[in-house]
Design goal:
Structural class: alpha/beta
Organism: Iodidimonas muriae
Oligomer: single chain
Strand content: 15-25%
Protein name: VWA domain-containing protein
């Protein structure tokens, strides 16, 4: 599956999700901040910050920033609708060598959901160094709780691809690759998820841009409601 086909599949998967999203959504935004992502970290940070600012413009979305790096360091911010504050937090994060901690992220999202509903989670990473079966089990539990995980993969590591696709599938979310040479691609996909998590089709209609991934998503939402 090439990048364009995979992205179309990702958007189509979102289109098939229920459209009665709550007006105030909660979106967990998780990042791999280990050393392998250092070469593209600064550019990705700017793109991810754009998503936080876009979420602020929506006014009905709370976001929590989660990242892991170094030796078992996994941190989470508080829930906030202040996109500028989240962008500043993102700017202060630097990459450190260490193994992936995706399992801790999935467990954290599940714990947060039990406190108050989490309507979607995004994970951005390039590697998976954990037991895939254990991650699949955690993803399945999130699927039962109706917490979809939307996974964006940087690079093309085959082990990560297999794990990431399963995490997305079992949780009821979707997977898509992205290329840092095409930053607009990731920016539009992130904004599309943020908008959709806030208010479903209507929010997407109100915020849509003609040349973005949001427009392609909107076109796929024109059919009968699932």
């Amino acid at each position: 599956m090439d990048s364009r086909t995979a992205i179309d599949h990702f958007l189509n998967t979102i289109a098939k999700r229920p459209t009665n999203a709550p007006r105030t959504g909660r979106l967990a935004f998780a990042l791999d901040a280990t050393m392998s992502r250092q070469p593209t970290w600064d550019r990705a940070s700017h793109i991810q910050s754009d998503m936080f600012l876009a979420a602020q413009d929506l006014g009905g979305l709370l976001v929590q920033l989660i990242y892991f790096r170094g030796f078992r360091e996994c941190r989470a911010s508080g829930w906030t609708d202040n996109g500028a504050a989240l962008a500043r937090k993102m700017a202060n994060v630097t990459c450190q060598g260490g193994l992936t901690q995706i399992g801790r992220v999935l467990k954290h999202v599940q714990k947060e959901h039990h406190k108050a509903p989490v309507h979607a989670a995004i994970f951005i990473g390039d590697a998976c160094e954990e037991n895939a079966d254990e991650l699949c089990h955690l993803a399945s539990e999130l699927g039962i709780l109706h917490v979809p995980v939307f996974v964006f993969q940087e690079g093309s590591d085959p082990t990560a691809t297999i794990a990431f696709k399963e995490i997305a599938r079992l949780s009821g979310g979707a997977w898509a690759p992205f290329d840092m040479n095409s930053p607009a691609q990731l920016r539009d996909l992130l904004k599309a998820v943020a908008i959709y998590a806030t208010g479903g089709r209507q929010a997407l209609q109100d915020q849509c841009e003609n040349t973005s991934a949001r427009q392609r998503l909107l076109e796929q939402l024109k059919g009968p409601t699932p």
